[in-house]
Amino acid sequence: MSNEIRLDALDHEILFHLRQDGRLTNVELAKRVGLTAPPCLRRVKRLEEAGVIAGYHAVINTAALGRGLEVLIDVEVSANDRKTYLEFEEVVASYEEVIEVRRMFGRPDYFIRVAVADHAAYEAFLTGKITGLPCVLRVDSHLTMKTVKQGP
Fold it and tell me: Which residues does the UniProt record annotate as the domain HTH asnC-type (predicted)?
């Protein structure tokens, strides 16, 4: 028996509009998808309960916070045990500069996205925090020229 929820065209349309603006009122969302408010709310609640909608969040403009330089980092670690991986993930995820951390299949072991003020701030972050971790074997940095499309 599958736990997968079946979505129809209206469900997909609801998800489309919520991706565009998670702050839509139920009344406005219902209007956009051609429903009345009560059935629209039931659908949204069903999508939330099924885990299709995992949450709502604000998109933060890091440049407005003085952290306009975004860098993508590939990190390889020299670890073969779960404890080292989990400790590395906990430490890296705790850094304020880190926006996203992904453990990858194959190489690199990790993909880390950071936002800092400038090149000097990135150098301080990289040398003071990332390369100082005992399990870090290799680091490759990729400076973002332009963000073409950004999630959710």
Answer: 7-68
Under DSSP, is residue 55 helix (H, G, I), strand (E, B) or coil? coil
Alpha-carbon gap, residue 5 to 20, rounded angstroms: 22
Q: Identify the DSSP state of 107.
A: S
For residue 1, what pLDDT is reported? 39
3: confidence class by pLDDT, cuts 50, 70, 90? low
Give helix 26-33 / helix 9-20 axis angle, nearest 10°.
130
Task: Please give the structure tokens belonging to residue 146.
Answer: 């332009």
H helices of the chain, in order, are 9-20, 26-33, 37-49, 82-94, 119-125
Q: How many helices (H) and strands (E) does the chain have?
A: 5, 4
pTM tops 0.85, yes or no: no
Query: Residues of 18-41 as b/e, b for ≥16 C-beta within 10 angstroms?
Result: beeeeebeeeebbebbebeeeebe
- Give me the residue label for tokens 């950004």: 150
Q: Which residue has the tokens 């408010």?
A: 37
Q: Which residues contact 146 (CB under 8 A, 6 or more apart)?
A: none
